[in-house]
Amino acid sequence: MSITETQWRTARHVVRRAVRSSLHCSIASRNPDGSPHVTPIGSVLLDHDIGTAWYFDVFNTRLAANVDADPRVTILAVDSGRGLWLRALATGVFAAPPGIRLIGAVGPPRPSTPAEVARFHRTIGPLLHTRGGRTAWGRLARVRDIQVDSVDPISIGTMTRPELSRS
């Protein structure tokens, strides 16, 4: 399936809002026994290039082992911002997709670039300057690229405009 510029722009917006509002996206992978495994990742970022994303490979040993064995993943990003949800509840319709699924494959770990680290630090803003922020995000040496094959906006029935969602 081909991802359009409009779909990718929407995906970038929703993922950015998800990371800012709930501090993570969820990445589903497959355990060696075939059971599902879901990991919260706070550093999922979508590039300007359609279908290109990445995350910092820290603290997630099970996810790393799973994607080394089977790189297929589904990422769920939900914009938990109160404004979006309160307006939707008041008006009965979401002005933008409240969430999005990205289906793709994760690549091997590679060294992060200074530009990638700087971009993520801008995303988390002042949280980096807290004790926990420095501990969690002070050393971001490795990233994994994600090749996104499809973008699937979340539907919440009639509250989601048809042109914004398919699921």
TrEMBL record:
Q: Which residue ranges does the record assign to the Pyridoxamine 5'-phosphate oxidase N-terminal domain? A: 15-91
Q: Which Gene3D superfamilies match?
A: Electron Transport, Fmn-binding Protein, Chain A
Q: Which InterPro entries match?
A: Pyridox_Oxase_N, Split_barrel_FMN-bd
What name does the UniProt record give this protein? PPOX class probable F420-dependent enzyme
Q: Which organism is it from?
A: Mycolicibacterium chitae
UniProt lineage:
Bacteria, Bacillati, Actinomycetota, Actinomycetes, Mycobacteriales
